[in-house]
Amino acid sequence: MTTPLITNEQLQKVKQLFETEDEDNLQLGFTLLKGFQLPHHFIHELRIKYGVACFKYNLYLPHHHVRKIDDLVPLYMLQNYHNPLLKELKVVVSAHEPNDLGHLPSLETLTMQLGNGASLPKGLEQLTCLKSLKLQVEGYYPNPVLSPEIGQLTSLVHLDLSENDFQFLPAELGQLLCLKSLDLRHNNCLLKLPNEMVHLQKLEWLNLEHNHYLEKMPAWLPELKQLKFLNLSGTGFNYLPKVRALAQQMPHTKIITGKLETPEYYEDEFKKF
């Protein structure tokens, strides 16, 4: 028995359900659609406007030739989605759900949100093409831990760990030998940087802005010979004698400091700086 073609009247009623943006109506609409053949233009519209819902209700997943999925998709819904051409993806990782990215080895750009208690997904070692990662810890999760598996992403060029509450970073961060930019701003609990970061010899851009508890200047910082930009605004390093000494050791690096704390005997020197 062939599946009937949906009529224009039925299609309009389903669209009205979707337009309410009510979760129950959305579920009802997708349930109704499963009983009909749909026009290709409407399937295309579904994939664009309701991409997450398509994953959720396992109906009309994105084409296997798409290169980018803009919607923020729960990772566990992607476990049966194989697309060798997918380059850019945004996912939410939930604790206690099957989470694996190894079946999407062509990814180059990834935005990942970690829910409460969630850790990095499996299969990171398979992402040999991944160049850019933005990682965000969502919800209330005091002192989240960045797992050592981050070191498996050895092709990374850009890493954004900003606006999290990491207290420490794993030594495995030093394994990201291709890294050129690292954004660590607004990690309000960060106490120190791992010494293994000295191995990031291709690093050109490092943002440490508003890490108030970072007070000890890493001795290895001047050894990053390719570093062109360093932001120390709002850190415990933001102290004129320290910054001036660092600037003398790193003449090719632009150092952003914001408002410097200046001891009285340094006031005249500050004018020369």
Describe this structure in words.
The model is unreliable at 262-267 and 269-273 (pLDDT under 50). The longest helix is centred in the N-terminal third of the chain and has 12 residues, at 8-19. This protein folds into two domains: 1-61, no CATH class; 63-272, Alpha-Beta Horseshoe (Leucine-rich repeat, LRR (right-handed beta-alpha superhelix)). It has 273 residues and is an alpha/beta fold. It has helices at residues 8-19, 23-33, 40-49, 51-56, 240-249, 267-272, and strands at residues 68-74, 88-93, 109-114, 132-137, 158-160, 181-183, 205-207, 229-231, 254-256. The protein is built from six helices and nine strands. A nine-stranded parallel sheet has the order 1-2-3-4-5-6-7-8-9.
Task: Give the averaged pLDDT, no decimals.
Answer: 85
The total tally of domains equals 2
CATH topology of the largest domain: Leucine-rich repeat, LRR (right-handed beta-alpha superhelix)
- How far apart are the termini? 83 Å
Cα radius of gyration in angstroms: 24 Å
The residue ranges in which pLDDT falls below 50 over 5 or more consecutive positions are 262-267, 269-273
Helix content: 10-25%
Strand residue content = 5-15%
Count of runs of 4 or more consecutive helical residues: 6
What's the CATH class of the largest domain, please?
Answer: Alpha Beta
Largest sheet: 9 strands, parallel
CATH architecture tag of the largest domain? Alpha-Beta Horseshoe
> In terms of structural class, how would the helical and strand content be classed?
alpha/beta
Number of strands: 9
Classified in CATH, the superfamily of the largest domain is Ribonuclease Inhibitor
Order of helices and strands: HHHHEEEEEEEEHEH
Strands side by side in the biggest sheet: 1-2-3-4-5-6-7-8-9
